Amino acid sequence: MRKLATLLVMAAVGFAGAVSAQTPAQAPTQPKTSTAPKTGTASSAAARAYDRTLLRPSMLKDKAPDTYQVKFVTTRGEFTVTVTRAWAPLGADRFYNLVKHHFYDNASVFRVVPGFVAQFGLSAYPAVSLAWQRANIPDDPVTQSNKKGYLTFATAGPNTRTTQIFISLKDNSGLDSQGFAPFGKVDDPGMKVVDMFYDQYGDNTPNDYQDLITKQGKAYLDAKWPKLDSIKTATLVGEPAPAAKPAAPKTTAPKPTAPATKP
């Protein structure tokens, strides 16, 4: 599988990010959504656990609001991300659609490099990850700097953004010139939660680490990397209220005529 972005920490003066990609895996067969899964099996339980619309990325094309918020509930606590669409419209739209359909629910924060980034965005469910591995979106111009707490999509080169996100754990402005376009920011109190994500595995993972996560899902991480933190839910909050339907005009009943008085 094409590895969706692996960033390396550079030592000494300044900062420079690096990206490497794995050997692409065979393209997945499009799941047949019309075939009901067998009951009582592990695969059917997994299928029920995620929104089946996620198996068809081409359907998820909603335009995001100008600003919106996403509440993350994790194994370390809660934090809120505020997204500003004008910063990176295509990235903001992609993130909006993924969150709206609960792509990130149950996903692990599978890579945390101290003093660099916390990375997530491979689904807990293999079928979902495989469906999205080639659903690239074009790059956005970089309008914001990759400061601490800012979110941006990981990449494996130009125009390769799909689902993986990283949160900068420090000022990573060296990434700006490499095309990483931030689209949102973690609220300040929430960064205390992000800073607690388990980081002792760092980059000490095998070369096929992301391939294995893609193919085996959260089960692989739970078995091999059990101390990783995970996202319980990521949901949209504070969306603009839908336009209210106009109220039906009030009809005023005619006043009863007073009975005539006798002269």
Percent strand equals 15-25%
What summary fits the major beta sheet? 8 strands, antiparallel
Compute the gyration radius: what is it?
24 Å
Ends apart, CA distance between termini: 101 Å
How much helicity do the residues have? 10-25%
Structural class by helix and strand composition = alpha+beta
Quickly name the level 1 CATH class of the domain at 67-237: Mainly Beta
Number of discrete helical segments? 6
The CATH topology label of the domain at 67-237 is Cyclophilin
Which blocks of ≥5 consecutive residues have pLDDT under 50? 1-44, 240-263
CATH superfamily of the domain at 67-237: Cyclophilin-like
Mean pLDDT: 81
Numbering strands along the chain, what is their spatial order in the largest sheet?
A: 5-6-8-7-9-4-3-10
Q: Can you tell me about this structure?
A:
The protein is an alpha+beta fold and 263 residues long. The protein has a domain at 67-237: Cyclophilin-like (Cyclophilin, Beta Barrel), CATH 2.40.100.10. Helix content is 17%, strand content 17%. It has 6 helices and 10 strands. The strands form 2 sheets. Strands 5-6-8-7-9-4-3-10 form an 8-stranded antiparallel sheet. A two-stranded antiparallel ribbon has the order 1-2. Strand 3 and strand 4 form a beta hairpin.
